[in-house]
Amino acid sequence: MIPLSKKTLNLFYTIVGLTLVCLVVNLPPSFTLFGKTLYRPSFDFQLGAAEIKPNLDLRYGLDLAGGASLVFEIDTKNTTTSNLTDALESLKTNIERRINLFGVSESNVSISRETDSYRLIVELPGVSDVNEAVKLIGQTASLKFMGIIDIPPEATATATLNDILKDTGLNGSHLVKAKPEPNPNTGAMEVSLVFNAAGTKLFEKATKDYLNKRIAIVLDNQIVTSPTVQTVIPDGLAVINGDFDIKSAKALSAQLNAGALPLSIKLIEQFQVGAILGKDSINKGIRAGLVGLGLVALFMIGNYGYLGFISVIGLFIYGLLTLTLYRLIPVTLTFPGIVGFILSVGMAVDSNILIFERLKEEIRSGRPWNTAMELGFGRAWDSIKDANACTIITGLILFNPFNWNFLNSSGIVRGFAVTLILGIIIGIFTGVVVTRNLLRVLARKKL
Amino acid sequence: MNIMKFRPLFFVISTFLIGISIFSIIKWGFQYSEDFKGGATFEIKMPNTKNNSQIEKIFNDQLVGLKSVSGTSGIYTVKLLDIAQDKKLTLEKNLKAIDKDFEVLQFSTRGPSLGKELIKKTIYAIIFSSLALLLFIGSRFSDFSFGAGAVLAMFHDSFILIGMFSLLGHFFGAQLDTLFVTALLTTLSASVHDTVVTFDRIRELKRFTATHSWTELANRAVTEVIVRSINNSMTIIFMLLSLVALGGSTTRWFAAALLIGVVCGTYSSTAVAIPLVLLFKRKK
């Protein structure tokens, strides 16, 4: 028997080491073994001054962890293209601020560009009360300052809000901020407003037009308050006074700040999953995956004997590596993502089958075992390379990495594509590098 | 093994499958899920409510365009045409009133415009991947007969998958949704994956053997890789079957679609892609 080369042995030990590390990473944070409670070692380390604490938990998407996702159509009709980028950006930060008020830890707000429109996508993991979230984000959509005009007494009975209010042109997009403050003289609570340059001009005009009359502050077609204009205000600084205590002044400023959305949005899609259903899906997915894996393992061992057994070890390493990468990158697992993973396991075995069939052929044509093995790997590599490249090409088109708006960008399709692409790359690695090395070291004795 | 002599049989089988697909698509069309046509779905838990009619009444009282209430043992799925946010709040309050353990397990609503967009984007994705694969395979094999053969076989598979879903929709209520689109796009890649392995063998044989007959090369290549093709499909089929059986209702049709795609892909690499390449070669 030819002794193993040093390179082969080194690679073998590297693989064993890597597998052990992955095994440790994939341990639950704490578990009981032989009556003792053990903890997963932490992987925190110091790099220069920076402390690095990798978060090794698997991230689950909304469909698995439970939570809500909302999609809003953004109305961009009243905005010029030059303002649009700014308006979208400020819309996003505004919504993020509203969500922070709501206290969601890992929320995600994004804007997606469709062929002829823009969408705002809000993901709220762990939120069970979607109605509250919708109310907070979607309903306080527009803030307007309206002059109240006098109407003849005989029309009062039939007058609606729209008849007595006249738009001053001043709206939420002009408001820089609203803040509760005590009046320096009286100590009574007031709400101070700061307008931007355009808003300052409009406000000056409005206070001139409605001097000694009232201006209504309208939030979503509801009058919040209607203070009387006491003087013309040229500097864009206004104060709303009334019967405020600290609490109501704070609430009004929050409402005004929240109302200052530069673009109005409309709810078009809602998705909400309870946490129980999510857990159920995870369990079902894991069970299906394990049963499938068991069948594949039986099939491989039944078909290829000892070789099959080694490929099952390769598959086990594949599983560990993939899960470790999911934790490190991190990949957010959705249910279609789990399906993509399960499917990629099937494809990972393919490299092994290709190689083993090649190996059998070479042995049939009378080559000795070790030569046949090396030839098998070498020749199978061409097909593995080309075939998997094709799958990666399709995977990339599904994933749409450049966010091209004529291709899909939905989370479901992407979640699937990510796990499929990762699975194929790792599958090639374990199929060609790991299994080959294991065979060289462990199957050589069959000489 | 002279597999290529079965070409007429393959032709009949494929024509038959495509024929059924066209027939079913024209005659029965598709069952679209709310992903495509808009609408709302509630999945609710009401452990103390034993019959659907009570739930139906609450929904009908709100005039929300109730389509169906289904389910047993306290978990119900309710489908609606559409629902406004304020009506949703009222509904949830009323449901809670008749069953104190009422809980929303899942709720989703989609506008109808999303579906059109999804179809458009899927078509773009198919065109885009076909072009990419045609170029990639064509250049890897320095021969566009192979690229065209692989891409046409891929169209064959995806069309049959679409047709079968029209049939499954008519007889078993399978719906077209975002997941189906994902399955369709996966079928594209799985189909090509298998075809490329067989093509690769033809390329290799051509390099090492003296024969110039493409049919003979094709026969030898198919004979040599067929065990691998079948074994490989078997492993994927095992994984998918366990998903169909154990994966829960959300993904059952998704796994079924992938299953059809994988089986079709294995069949078409031998029975469609190679005969097409032979056809192109004879024409030249």
Task: Put the structure in a nutshell.
The complex is a heterodimer of chains A (447) and B (284). By secondary structure, chain A is α+β, with helices and mostly antiparallel strands.
Question: What would the keywords be for this entry?
Answer:
heterodimer, A: 447 residues, Multidrug efflux transporter AcrB transmembrane fold, Alpha-Beta Plaits, Gyrase A, domain 2, 4-stranded antiparallel β-sheet, 52% helix, B: 284 residues, alpha+beta, 2 domains, 9% strand, elongated, protein-transporting ATPase activity (chain B)
Explain the overall architecture:
- Chain A is of the alpha+beta class and 447 residues long.
- Helix content of chain A is 52%, strand content 21%.
- Chain A has helices at residues 6-25, 62-65, 81-102, 130-139, 161-164, 197-209, 246-259, 275-304, 306-328, 335-364, 369-399, 411-442, and strands at residues 30-33, 36-39, 45-47, 50-52, 59-60, 67-74, 108-113, 118-125, 143-148, 165-171, 175-182, 189-195, 215-219, 222-225, 237-244, 265-273, 332-333.
- In chain A, the strands form six sheets. A four-stranded antiparallel β-sheet of chain A has the order 7-8-6-16.
- In chain A, strand 1 and strand 2 (36-39) form a beta hairpin.
- In chain A, helix 1 (6-25) packs across helix 12, helix 8 packs antiparallel against helix 9 and helix 10 runs antiparallel to helix 11 (369-399).
- The longest helix of chain A has 32 residues, at 411-442.
- The radius of gyration of chain A is 32 Å and the shape is elongated.
- The mean pLDDT of chain A is 77.
- Chain B is α+β, with helices and mostly antiparallel strands and 284 residues long.
- Chain B has two domains: 3-34 and 113-283, Multidrug efflux transporter AcrB transmembrane domain (Multidrug efflux transporter AcrB transmembrane fold, Up-down Bundle), CATH 1.20.1640; 39-110, ACT domain (Alpha-Beta Plaits, 2-Layer Sandwich), CATH 3.30.70.
- Chain B is 72% helix and 9% strand.
- Chain B has helices at 7-27, 34-37, 52-61, 85-98, 113-140, 144-172, 178-208, 214-246, 249-283; strands at residues 39-45, 66-70, 75-80, 103-110.
- In chain B, strands 2-3-1-4 form a four-stranded antiparallel β-sheet.
- In chain B, strand 2 and strand 3 (75-80) form a beta hairpin.
- In chain B, helix 6 runs antiparallel to helix 7.
- Chain B is elongated.
- Chains A and B meet through helix 4, strand 16, helix 8, helix 10 and helix 11 of A and helix 4, strand 4, helix 5, helix 7 and helix 8 of B.
